[in-house]
Amino acid sequence: MKKCFKLLFITGLLFLAFGCDDDDKHVAEPISPIFKEVKMPSEMSIIPGQATQITGLGFAHEDKIFLTGTEGTIEVEVLEATDSYIKFVVPIDAGGEYSVTIERAEKQTTLNSKLKVPFVVPLTDVVLPTTAIPQEGEVRIEGKGFEAGDVAKLTATFYPDGTEYSIPVTLTSEGAKFNLPKGTYGINTIVIERGNRKSNLGTIIAATNVGDVLGGGIVFWVDANKAHGYIVSKTNVGTATEQFGPEVDPVNASGTSQAMGSGKSNSQKIAAKMAQLRSINDWPEWKNTKIAAELCEEFSVTENNLTYTDWFLPSREELIELFKVKSVMTAKGYAISPNNYWSSSEADGNTGWAAYYVNFYEDTNIISEFVSKSGWKIGVRPVRSY
Fold first, then answer.
1. What is the DSSP letter of 69?
2. pTM of model > 0.90
3. Do residues 230 and 83 both lie within one domain?
């Protein structure tokens, strides 16, 4: 189809003539792709060498992706693209912040948001030991991508703040290996570091046994996997005998438990209740006197330049477990002095005037009853858990 137009001026008259323009030859010019509601993946969800995706409206199957960082611009492999997302492979050696450019029909659009890739050590097919590793034993890790100079770092929530163990790894045909440093115990998080890159591999278990001397004291209970346990201090806290605290009305009981695993929360509840009573001027005679739970919470032990401060008054069941192995403590050279010892378990959990004790004068018979918190003065032995 043709349309022709021409303007002619002849002797003062206007004539409309016709010229020609061929519409059948018109070709639309491509425009830069337009995207809306773009959302980048979170940094924590990105793993170099694996797929990730950017969501938003306007993507198309022919789109290409370019990442621009401090080392230049690279094109990445697009796995899938729809109108609502584009999926691509993050380069295995990527790390840092990248501008993202989408190209379609040789036209480009740079997205407003940045792609943030964590600096990780690119390891694949990693398999960690599933059983507990003996103290100072060898840890063998299967996997691909380990390099000479890689360092394994071990940390745990129950180590003193800032404590980490760094061990250079040795390469093996299957991956890498190293030996547990002295002092490690329980469930440890293992991170592989290479320069400024880090890769969290998961957790391993440094085995523990009753009688092990570590963590500021002596292990007196471990679970079946040798991963979790309790450590008792080598000494009592305070004087040889201490009062539990004031006898209070049932309404001011702390609501403690006798169960294994409750000692730490018991101690926290008792100390918080005492602080509340002091704030309203109840029991003025205890204003400047520490109760048994507070003595434990403020206790600290420094060994090998590490300071342990997470002690607590054990629950009744925890204290009974300590009694059961007191002969092991003696054999290891850390006998528990004959005494009655306070637990952090109030009588029935709601009786304000009494708390349970365990009799350590006995050889094997377990004797544990509740008695007056202030009427009795007996021993206080802190413990900590892992």
1. E
2. no
3. no
